[in-house]
Amino acid sequence: MAPQYAQSLRFRLPPLLFFLQTGFIVVFIVYVDIEQNVQTKQHAFNNYYSEFQDVHVMVILGFGFLATFLVRYSFSGAGFTLLVVAMAVQWAVILNGVESMYHRGNILINMRSLVVAEMCTASSLIAIGAVLGKTNPVHLLLIALLEISGFVLNGWLLQTFVKVQFLNTIMLLHIFGAFFGLMLSWVLYRQGSEQQHEKEKIDRKTGLFSVMGTLFLWMFWPSFNSVLVEVDHLDRGRSLRAVYSTYLALAVSAVTAAGFSVLTSPQGKLNLFHIQRCTLAGGVAIGVAMSAVHLPWVATAIGFAAALISTLGSRYIKPIMLFAFECHDTCGVLSVHGLPGILGWMVQLLLQIADSDDLTTAVRFAVFHICTLLITLSLSMSLGLITGFLLKCHFWRPPQNKKCFDDQAFWEFPHQAGKR
Questions:
Q1: pLDDT band at 23 (very low <50, low <70, confident <90, very high)
Q2: How far apart are CA 194 and CA 155, in angstroms?
Q3: pLDDT in tens, 239-266
Q4: For residue 321, what pLDDT is reported?
Q5: pLDDT (tens digit, 9 = 90+) per residue, 176-199?
Q6: Structure confidence at residue 151 (pLDDT)
Q7: pLDDT exceeds cutoff 50 at 1
Q8: Whether the predicted model's global pTM rises above the 0.70 cut
Q9: What is the pLDDT of residue 194?
């Protein structure tokens, strides 16, 4: 039997797609140009292209496969990820070029701008993970566009008023996306979510594909954390240090997540959700703290603490958020991205204070660093609330409760049509 809202989606999704894409094409025709300096282009290609490929693989294959874990939502998990990325990258390129357009009259496309756009898109995918399976593709596109707008605005505010380096603002994507998504899940909460939905589960096939996404993310995360280091630091050694630190943090994080997954299991067994996500917590935390990490043991300690917080959060904090605060976080983005991100922020604060030459410098840095987090949390949570109330409007035709976590509401299945 066809889902109630399948036909009405025809009058919402295609018009939105064509409207947005036409608008982006017009903007690209009028304002966007490719960087013409041959020497600069060759330098950017040599320095960025291989790492751009790594980031691209992470965003498309990593997040795409990771979203296929639900037993009847694998088509939507992978397909909607591609759709959102394709649209969101264009929007991020335009937004990140607004300042250039204001001063120069046009937006220049280069390898670095594409990398930054991909990283902004990753922030929106993190937010979407909190409401995965409970929304339609129109919702997801609107979430991505509004979240990226807020994230770019947050970066501009931090760089302009708090004088935060660009690298540090972009690495706040984990915190911004996680708390944006958490507020979304609170506003879009559905009655009855206390009881697990019959389709909100993993089977062997979808679990295997989801672990493939984890492997892609785990393999290429060092590039994700190091690709923009040289934007602020011309010393190539800093970029290599970021690679080493990220790899060590990820390695320790994977081992620690597996250990605590068994320890916290009533049956004393590994939990696939922990292996899929908590093994990545070290990469999240080290990315936020990266500018202050100079020693290998610090990276390993961060990986251990991040995996511990993430695993315990997935096991205990996620149910508390559901029953006490009515936040149904499908992918556990608070435990995987939010809490490890805040851990990285705290580590960066402590290390920078320890490295300060005098008390005045330490206090000044602490004040600005705390302001950075407060601005990021305030903006992400407020925009998440606004976006949630906007999407709660029935005009967007959210899926029925019984059609949540189900591909059949959005995708054709010819073999089933043949049986009918």
A1: very high
A2: 36
A3: 889 999 999 999 999 999 999 999 999 9
A4: 86
A5: 999 999 999 999 887 766 666 667
A6: 97
A7: no
A8: yes
A9: 61
What would the 3-class secondary structure string for the chain be? CCCCCCCHHHHCHHHHHHHHHHHHHHHHHHHEEECCCHHHHHHHHHHHHHHHHHHHHHHHHHHHHHCCCCCCCHHHHHHHHHHHHHHHHHHHHHHHCHHHHHHHCCEEECHHHHHHHHHHHHHHHHHHHCCCCCCCHHHHHHHHHHHHHHHHHHHHHHHHHCCCCHHHHHCCHHHHHHHHHHHHHHHCCCCCCCCCCCCCCCCHHHHHHHHHHHHHHHHHHHHHHHCCHHHHCCCHHHHHHHHHHHHHHHHHHHHHHHHHHHHCCCCCCCCHHHHHHHHHHHHHHHHHHHHHCCCHHHHHHHHHHHHHHHHHHHHHHHHHHHHHHCCCCCCCHHHHHHHHHHHHHHHHHHHHHHHCCCHHHHHHHHHHHHHHHHHHHHHHHHHHHHHHHHHCCHHHCCCCHHHCCCHHHCCCCHHHHHHC
Distance of CA 260 to the CA centre of its chain: 24
Token couple for 154: 């947050």
